[in-house]
Fold each of these.
Amino acid sequence: MVDSSHTAFAIKEISKNSQFQQVSQNQIFRNYEYNLDFDDKVLGFIRWIFKNNAEFRHSCLRWVAVLSQLLPDECLPLKRTITFSDGSKALNLSSPIILAAGANKNAKSISAYSNLGFGGITVGTATRNFRSGNPHRPRVGLDEFNRLIYNSMGLNNDGISSVAERVKKQIEKSHNRGMAVGISVAETPTVTDEASRLQDILETFTIGYGVADYIEVNVSCPNTGEERLDLDTKFMKSVFEGIDNFRKTESQRKSVYAKLSPDLTEKQLCSILDLLAPLGVNGVILGNTYPSEHLFYDLPILNAKGTSGGISGRPLYENTFRKTIFAKKHFPSLSVVACGGIDHGLKVRDLLNEGADFVQAYSVSAFRWNAIKKMNREFFGAV
Ligand SMILES: Cc1cc2nc3c(=O)[nH]c(=O)nc-3n(C[C@H](O)[C@H](O)[C@H](O)COP(=O)(O)O)c2cc1C
């Protein structure tokens, strides 16, 4: 079991980073609390039963989605259409809450997630070929007290061809159920020479682009043991130039998002956005799981820096909120998607009011039973 007092250092690190935007000090920040209902307590009991098998517990979300198809749909009028000034295909969402990447890595049972209340789903992250991810166990764990998940999965997935094939088969049904489907792609961490790296990520992108509604390029995975792409701006520029050139040859333009790390400083975030905007990138996901060199959890050390993965969930929210405001203020034409610690419908409302086009969530589904439906209701009641 994890002693949650050990998280204090990592959480302090996140909140220090959250203060970086002087510009947003006047914005009202509220970390809304939710009541623990009876069903949330039952979920807590289920978490306790599977406490030694965290990866299995994570895979259960898919089965909950499949079984929830037996229940009647809840149709709240929360539809959103996201349009893009460059003519990229619009995204039609039945709710502003989308399932974040990592929860359904292999694109299985996609349309079932609409029954959980999601207005869309990002599957993946997919790499060029199958990867088993990091070899150690456990690779994922949960801190009850702080309502966070820590992980060092290391991009395990079936490979882009299998993922794209499954998306192709299910996308029409997903659209009929009000969901947009995106694929998250990343470079293969073990490829090292520059030309092969570029070829690897561009091939992965191209296969995903052929079938998905939008593509997320994951440039910020903190737990493969490799340097993150968002810290290697020269190579990142080549990747997005390649993507831009490819998109110009396609008859149908689709939106492309870059998923950035939540630990970027103001200066880093600005220089990345300055680089991405002229290359036709439509938007950014802010952000990924929070990499920390100060995690004290029971994950093995992964790389030379001693980083042991990242954390997700409630402690990320203030950082998400302030970064969303910052990005929107400095780059108003970018589509901003808030992600990190979003666990209440009023947070969704606040983020959309601050200019986010939609939000992504994942960890909350481990802590609130029927989380997204509850958040949709809280959001609906507030607008
Ligand atoms: C177990 C786990 C696996 C994840 N895998 C991925 C992934 O493959 N690709 C990715 O872009 N993000 C991945 N993430 C990050 C989430 O998509 C999300 O950015 C992060 O968890 C913050 O959102 P949350 O606080 O709502 O969970 C993962 C997160 C967790 C907890």
Note: The chain has eleven helices and 14 strands.
Amino acid sequence: MSGRAQLMWDEAVTEYDFGPGHPMDPVRLTLTRKLIGALGLDREVHAVAARPAGESTLRLVHRADYIEAVKAASADPGAADTSYGLGTLDDPAFRGMHEVSALIAGQSVAAAEAVWHGEALHAVNFAGGLHHAMPGAASGFCVYNDAALAIARLLELGAERVAYVDVDVHHGDGVQAAFWEDPRVLTISLHEHPRTLFPQTGWPQETGAGDAEGSAVNVALPAGTGDAGWLRAFHAVVPELLADFRPQVLVTQHGADTHFEDPLAHLAVSLDAQRAVQLACHDLAHTCAGGKWVALGGGGYAVVDVVPRSWTHLVGIAAGRPVEPETVIPQSWRQEVYARTRRVGPLRMTDGRWPVAWADWEAGYDPANRLDQSILATRRAVFPLRGLLA
Ligand SMILES: [Zn+2]
């Protein structure tokens, strides 16, 4: 039933391009795909190019008038309707925007379908994780919310419990909003505090509504949080909630913008800690979700030094062949980096911080410490709602 992990990839996803000067440079996807190949991981995965998400699939999350607005902006970028967040600085309109956004969404939806039907135990779409898109608006470099669409498709297929864990440096606001009143979906987001970062949401007190109170979880980390703090927060919140919720599928979003080199945010996490969290997510999929795991990309704007390495680790982990941190990166890939960017690529698959240590929450906490205050705020806001001890 397991088979090889499925890697979703269609070269055309690199047409998701907001133009020169925009931080979301599609070279990050190209370089990731090439690094996966350069490290020999192609032999370990089943690469699949899925079809774009169609209208009825997009409608599982998005409003019809918004989809029409995206199509109109896609056909005539100059006429983009900014009231839908289109044609803005964050989400400039470009020709073909609808088609490529639907293509990326289609990869995540197909990943979810493959995992649900048991065609693959794990599936990765690193071009996805566009978690800020709202039902009726583009936001934060995101047009269609492929993460929310993958989850909505799982529900449509009959899933009763889906967990979403988002470790992008930004709050997973669009996914949270899509399932705000749906108790079938547990959303957990770890991110830099809304006081210092877009989208200024993701407070611990945001816990969902109605029947779904307690199904949105937010850990708002102080700016400057590093490896040990980030891992401490993850392990103080995520495993206990997943063990209790027992999702049928685990969907994770691995934005690489927590990294200390990322130009758009202020956490101080290394590649090695990102890899540790990816390994933890894989373990949690097996211990809590019968192994069913859909892993997505997300943000990440250090497009040469960080993103390709981070998501190559993710693919290696999903493929059952984790890339060792000390691995030397093939010269062929570094030549490709130079040819495309005139920059010098990294030498190894590590930032030199492996293995990453952290202090376990169960061993005690310090009420005067700002990180521990953040963790405690989350546990107090949501654990009692789920019948767990804060
Ligand atoms: Zn982000």
Note: The pocket of zinc ion is lined by residues 168-170, 255, 257, 298-299 (CB under 6 Å).
